[in-house]
Amino acid sequence: MDPAVTPLSSTDRTRLRRLRDQGRTDRAALVAVLRAGFVCHLGVVVDGTPMVVPTVYGFDSSFLYFHGSVASRSLAGGRTACVTVTHVDGLVLARSVFEHGVNYRSAMVYGLPRVLSGAAKLEGLRVLTEHAAPGQWDYARRPSRKELAATAIFALPLDEASVKVAEGPPTDGDGPDASLGLWAGVVPLGVVRRPPVPDPALPPGLPVPAHITALAEEA
Amino acid sequence: MDPAVTPLSSTDRTRLRRLRDQGRTDRAALVAVLRAGFVCHLGVVVDGTPMVVPTVYGFDSSFLYFHGSVASRSLAGGRTACVTVTHVDGLVLARSVFEHGVNYRSAMVYGLPRVLSGAAKLEGLRVLTEHAAPGQWDYARRPSRKELAATAIFALPLDEASVKVAEGPPTDGDGPDASLGLWAGVVPLGVVRRPPVPDPALPPGLPVPAHITALAEEA
């Protein structure tokens, strides 16, 4: 099944309700949003109240993998999670306060995360590591049995998801407010990566490996 | 009460459980994290499952204000929300996969959001607008009665919060892995703002106001 053409599911909780936010219904849009970041916000319910924690993720064609960290306890019982990945692309300055907004790309994935073990856990950690830091799985020392046991990796199916994208200029350019003579437009925002900073504990003269230079130059 | 010295509360859900993530317990740390962004992730519980949506926020010494949007329905009954603000500052590349991590600053605020009305709603919207786009409240056309009625603004008390900061180089520089001879360090990440892009619908020659040039130059 080609992940680029699989439509996303539309359930009551992933159906879109607002106007300017444009919903995307193809899997390619989901993959594009997931590819552009490596920190998600994981939402779980703990004792009836919501908890939202940032955590590192990776993904393949079927699952989103994330580090369990503080949320592990809450997910152990097989409870639904919501993982949201958001990229803030711009501040939309309109002629009226009401039409102000944010340009962004966001993906929400709902599902039952499954805690991984054995070979699946190692593979999940590999996918996550290679997504966040391409090349490091082969370069750095891989986890020992003990380290792996101290790590919680979850797999969340990429079956129930929604993607929203808001882009472009403010929408009040052809309304009555256009005659106010006010400036309107967008202040673009973006994430930049800067040159690698060596650990002060490194011996002098150790060159930066090519794959690290490359990942520091990613958009 | 000086917000810079008020300790943050420590409840069971805001107490910190992990080691490398350094908890901060002063209100100045909370204010610093909130000041550095304008998009939060709002977590609510809908029909027993978590929902995490990005939304715009602002804050003053007592409350965090956010746009209700899709979450409004779920909060109407006076339910607890969790608002998380995260800044990703760097990718930490250690000698071992296990010690890899992310440098970040994150704040979590728990509480019962109150939907605002009347003068408090207008003030909440002003604080939110001025936080995200300083100067626009006085420059753009303010909301009409009808527009204000179509906007949902919530106030979340800044009483129960936790702040976590992870920074600096990887921590395996003085362990046995240091002898592997591998490069280790940090790839710094940051958000940049780019020069304002005028709405194509603007009449030619309209200069960019100074406050917009200034907000586009913010770090």
From TrEMBL, chains A, B:
The species this protein was found in: Actinoallomurus acaciae
Query: What top-level class of enzyme does the UniProt entry assign?
Result: oxidoreductase
For this protein, the Enzyme Commission number is 1.-.-.-
Q: Can the keyword Oxidoreductase be found in this entry's annotation?
A: yes
| InterPro entries, per database record | Pyridox_Oxase-rel, Split_barrel_FMN-bd
Q: Name one GO molecular function term.
A: oxidoreductase activity
Q: Name one Pfam family in it.
A: Pyridox_ox_2
User: Which keywords does this Swiss-Prot/TrEMBL entry list?
Assistant: Oxidoreductase
Q: What is this protein called?
A: Pyridoxamine 5'-phosphate oxidase family protein
